[in-house]
Write a structure and sequence with these properties.
By secondary structure, this protein is mainly alpha-helical. The termini are far apart. It has 3 helices and no strands.
């Protein structure tokens, strides 16, 4: 085999439930759908804005666990964005030709 090893691209999917969800994702999705189900049973569905309000928790939770390219899901993407903006980042500008310039004092 010429000592070449090929690692499959979906190795992390084997650790997920149904190749999409972590246990926390299923808890978020399940709780959102449970709240939606309870609201649909309690609230009158003949008024449009009440019906939209009743299904909003399920839609929000479903969007949070929706898969996104290069990230696990939207929840993971939001967590990465928050971490990026809350961490201390210091980028020193060296210029385009930093290595080509001679030091002038």
């Amino acid at each position: 085999m010429n000592q070449n090893y090929l690692i499959p691209t979906n190795t992390k999917k084997g650790q997920l439930i149904l190749s999409l969800f972590t246990p926390l994702d299923l808890i978020i999705l399940g709780s959102g759908l449970l709240v939606t189900l309870i609201l649909v049973m309690i609230l009158p569905m003949d008024i449009t804005w009440v019906a939209v309000l009743a299904i909003t928790p399920g839609i929000i939770c479903a969007l949070l666990v929706l898969p996104v390219a290069y990230y696990h899901n939207v929840r993971q993407l939001i967590m990465e964005i928050i971490q990026y903006f809350n961490s201390r980042n210091r980028y020193v500008w060296k210029g385009w030709c930093y290595k080509d310039e001679s030091e002038s004092k």
